[in-house]
């Protein structure tokens, strides 16, 4: 090598994760709900029904968090 480093490819990083953790663990992590929006974006599935559902769930989670905040603020201590 000449001392310069190249950025690692996404595929190279994927293979590293598979070697370290195993395929099942890597795919389970990728398809965890918290990572699902990223998976949809990488697979270029934005605008699909799946993306629409992800957006809907995110909106419901945001509303629920707002309700919890209001409930805590209104709680009598």
The secondary structure category is mainly alpha
Rg over CA atoms: 19 Å
Q: Tell me, rounded to a whole number, the average pLDDT.
A: 81
Shape annotation:
elongated
Number of helices: 4
Unreliable stretches, pLDDT < 50, 5 or more residues?
A: none
Biggest beta sheet attributes: none
Number of domains: 1
For the termini, the CA-CA separation is: 65 Å
Structure, explained:
- This protein has 77 residues and is mainly alpha-helical.
- The chain has one domain.
- It is built from four helices and no strands.
- The longest helix has 26 residues, at 49-74.
Task: Put the structure in a nutshell.
This protein has 4 helices and no strands. With 77 residues, it is mostly helical.
Helix/strand layout:
Elements: H1 10-21, H2 23-30, H3 33-42, H4 49-74
Helix pairs in contact: 1-2
Q: What key attributes describe this structure?
A:
mainly alpha; 4 helices; elongated
């Amino acid at each position: 090598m000449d001392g310069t480093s190249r950025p690692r490819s996404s595929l190279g990083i994927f293979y590293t994760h598979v070697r370290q953790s195993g395929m099942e663990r890597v795919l389970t992590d990728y398809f965890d709900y918290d990572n699902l929006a990223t998976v949809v974006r990488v697979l270029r599935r934005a605008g699909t029904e799946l993306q629409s559902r992800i957006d809907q769930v995110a909106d419901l989670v945001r509303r629920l968090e707002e309700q919890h905040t209001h409930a805590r603020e209104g709680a009598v201590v």
